[in-house]
Amino acid sequence: MILNLTPHPIRLYSDEREDGSDDLDLHLREIIPPEATPARLATVDLGTQADGTELVEYGHTYGLPPKRDGVRYVVSLVVALALVDRRSDLLVPYREVRNTSGTVIGCRQLVQPV
């Protein structure tokens, strides 16, 4: 089972889908609807240095359920990269599909970053 923890539907297209079309159904294989709560990357403000530079710690996530047997989660690339050494159940969109204006409308694959 694949659950979508991004805030928008994930459209998966076949390899035959070319960029540059506004037809959302052309070579569409599947749509994975988003779950109610997306997984996000949290920030922790660590304060301001003497030169005015703000220090921010990244790497903490929220909205991400614990690992479950047989379940993979689609998350943003930043969430997956923050947890790449701790979670093997995270997938990200790969090989994006773009419409005529260059906006990403889907992808051709889901992959596990390593």
Overview of this protein structure:
The chain is mainly beta and 114 residues long. Helices cover 5% and strands 44% of the residues. The chain contains 1 helix and 8 strands, in the order ββββββαββ. It has one helix at 77-82, and strands spanning 2-4, 10-13, 28-32, 40-48, 54-62, 72-74, 90-98, 104-111. The strands form 3 sheets. The protein has a 4-stranded mixed beta sheet, with no helix packed on it. The protein has a two-stranded antiparallel sheet with strand order 2-3. The longest helix is centred in the C-terminal third of the chain and has 6 residues, at 77-82. It starts with a strand and ends with a strand. The mean pLDDT is 95.
Task: Describe the structure concisely.
The protein is built from 1 helix and 8 strands. The chain is mainly β and 114 residues long.
